Amino acid sequence: MERENFLKNFVLFFIYLILLRSFYLQIIRYPYYYQLSIRNCIRTIETGTPRGVIYDRNGRVLAKDIPSINLVFVPYDLKNVENEIEILSKILDLDKEYLEKKLKGKYINPFDRVILKRNLTNKEISLIEENSYNLPGIFVQEGIRRLYPFGKKTAHLLGYLGEITKYQLERLKEKGYKMGDVIGQDGIEKQYDEFLKGIPGGIQVEVDALGHQRRILGRKEGQPGNDLILTIDATIQEIAAEELGNKKGSVAIMDPRNGEILALVSNPSFDPDNLKYYLDESKFSEKPFLNRVIKGQYPPGSIFKIITEIAALETGTIREYDRIECTGAIEVRDRVFHCWKEEGHGWIDINLALPFSCNIFFGTIGMRLGVSQIIEYAKKFELGKKTEIDLPGEATGYIPNPKEADPLNLSIGQGPITTTPLQLLSLIATVANGGNIWQPFIVKKIVTPKGDILKEFIPNLKKTIYIDSETLDILRKGLRNVVVFGTGTRAQVEKLEIAGKTGTAQRAASELDLPTHGAFVCYAPFDNPKIAVVVFLDYGSSSQAAEIAGKILKRIFLPEKFEGENETETEILEE
Fold first, then answer.
1. Which domain holds residue 187?
2. CB distance 493 to 554 below 8 Å
3. Per-residue model confidence as pLDDT tens digits over 377-421
4. CA angle, corner 305, sides to 374 and 534, nearest 5?
5. 224 and 299 co-located in one domain
6. Confidence (pTM)
7. Who's near 9: CB < 8 A, 6+ residues apart?
8. Cβ contacts of 496 within 8 Å, gap of 6 or more
9. Pair 313, 181 in one domain
10. 68-96 per-position pLDDT tens digit
11. Partners of 129 in the beta sheet?
12. What angle do CA 422, 413, 351 make, to 5 degrees?
């Protein structure tokens, strides 16, 4: 009897215990478990992360988001992967290796949607729908794509977007980035990605205990990121791109009064809407993704004579009217050093040597100066050093140490010395403004979606180089004469005074008759500089570069001669 009572009480105890536990879980802890169940059964399928708009200085749109359609799949719902790969490889521009890697990949949550291809065309959407019966788990879904209205003309400036890599994720996951995110991979898009990136939107769906989607509950609207207002003038950017044409090289334009970049163009370029096409190295061996303005490293050639002249005048190595005879060649030890003009320039002073770009004159004063002093002045103007422009991947160039260079070659910008086109632009801008080295910059303002200014960038004066006024007058007069009667006459523009310097750098020994780099730097107007320009051709002459610069300046300063020009460029000229 006692044993029966004990057993009865023992069972009742456990029943009471279960009832109390049930009461605790279902009544007291109800709110917590209700929210937990909601989170488990309702999921948001992201349809894209909206980004801020990128504008030029006059409010013209350079990059914005527009709706698109993507091809996605749910790994768990795939039935016959081999068959689906076969079908998709035939109806879409996707190779089997890529499809196999994607469709057979291992995913943390096999019920989540994975993007297979972005920005489907209407034809591709129709083909997918026609074959939908044989493509279980694969379907189209709305998304977002980036539109670049100026296409190739702004490709290197703005950059492009791409899915985050594992390496990038390791560095950025602490900032809220996750696998599958689309981020800036180069240019402004990369440099300011954290500001441009918004909050993703998506479709809210109900799922069962196994994770299968049962029904769509609604939409969650994405929130765009911040907008960027650039220093770039879209009209000047177009002009620069059009005048450079199909030539391999680069053009950059800056306001020498404050460092604002007005245009930045590199060729060959790429179409940001069709990146895959340009990734084929068999078709594009000329590195279309290389931004030559900031990453190209070239010998500066005769443009470097600006440095040699300043160093010689400032140190008293020569005076304005000191003359040197150029017979076309000089013999130094066991070496013959040639001028580009075989018959020579005769007896000339600095006022003619710079316009005619006489190698013998500058080689001679280079030997008098010595390598160390030439290098000292090159470094004063920050050649061989990053300009710190707000773009990723800027190269430094290279200024050799005294033991690596000889004064003859170095004085005319040859030998182991290399610079970027942007450094040469900074050099001519510094001469134009009287010695101020401004940090080049592209973004003026970061603006919230509500229109509030989040951040405003002001010009940054990095340093001021003291150049004697007499030295500056002699140099500027010489630069003006380069265009008036010297090696840069093809840059002449009627009713516009331009000062500049040509530069030709050999790609290999001249006796092999291999092509040269041709470059031209300039500023205008001569008496009140508002525009500084560098044109650098990978294959071409300095006179060709000068002609391109002249055409650009003509269209900027004399727009009435060109039908259909936009009035926005006058803002720069009226300041």
1. 44-230
2. yes
3. 999 999 999 999 999 999 999 999 998 999 999 999 998 999 999
4. 120
5. no
6. 0.85
7. none
8. 524, 525, 553, 554, 557, 558
9. no
10. 888 888 787 788 888 888 888 888 878 88
11. none
12. 100
